[in-house]
Task: structure prediction
Amino acid sequence: VRHFIEELEELKTKLLEMSSLVEAAIQRSISAVILKDRGAAEEVFKNEARINTIELEIDELAINLLALHQPMAADLRFIVAVLKINTNLERMGDLSVNIAESATSLIEEPVITPMIDIPHIAGLVQSMVRKSLDAFVTRDVDLARSVLASDDAVDSLRTVCYQELVSFMEKHPQNIQPSCNLLTVTRNLERIADHSTNIAEDVLFLVKGIDVRHHTEARQ
Amino acid sequence: VRHFIEELEELKTKLLEMSSLVEAAIQRSISAVILKDRGAAEEVFKNEARINTIELEIDELAINLLALHQPMAADLRFIVAVLKINTNLERMGDLSVNIAESATSLIEEPVITPMIDIPHIAGLVQSMVRKSLDAFVTRDVDLARSVLASDDAVDSLRTVCYQELVSFMEKHPQNIQPSCNLLTVTRNLERIADHSTNIAEDVLFLVKGIDVRHHTEARQ
Result:
């Protein structure tokens, strides 16, 4: 039986590998939409299997650690946080695949539809993802809290995008199909932001042992 | 310190309470859309806080069980399955709130928009939710597998709904806003089906110790 510390290190390394893959998938899916980059979309589809495999490996490692070493206190919190962050990362990977699929439809239907605030919302979401993962690595509570604060900004921007796209469709009914694809993109970006928020909450749980979910007063 | 078996029983009871609340929320959110029942939507909003509270209580109970009793093998798998199912149930609760919000917009904008296949997809999704939870309670592997098989049917139905709504909007641009609300409803129903699939996978992990996620051959 290998040493506990060594297996814990392996768990952390694998989660960082998972994070890099998911961040790259998000970046590529956004490029696929904004730059109409078909190659970027295809990279996202290609890497999905690897993300799914690492998710299973991380869960297995974590459950084995729980079973074989019965860790206490801080180590137990770390392993539970890794299990939760892992689930969130895998879903973010799925959402990138959804965005890359919408991008593919948009590339195949070359109708001019305004990008409205999508580059703006995408930039904000990517920054939330980056910060939530940095907060995990450096155990930075302030950084984690800043992610929680950004979530409302993304929700408002999404509402603005939604209204702009509905108005655009009303004026240009021939562009309903691509506009619906863009609606789907904004919804998937918002869901990626939600998962970053979940990760930031997991970081607070890990570092402070507090659960901030559903406690709005603690999120100010 | 209370007896381990007693705390495990409490964990199971709380998860069943959570399941009932979430099933009721899904049922009411669908009635709110299909029957334009504003009272049903309001019940969903009212019960959200209770669902969020129980989610935290279940996580805390499960983590305490892991920390204080260091359970092995089957008990460890049960507790990990409860943690995962709990997360899925809470998200299903959130999705019901989204559906109830769309219902509220639809009630406030009394434009006639066809319900197309929404009652059909809603029925299928509710049956998946019911079966995945029954499979957990009775540890029924065949029932869990039947949930995995239904997921593709929901995805196909959702694609049909999507295309029908886009065609309807193209013909009736004055109804774009309510049609977009219905699009959102179908997407949220599909996501509830995805979470039922996750629960069915957790049941297979619990009973058989096997992880069927991302192994399509095992899902036939």
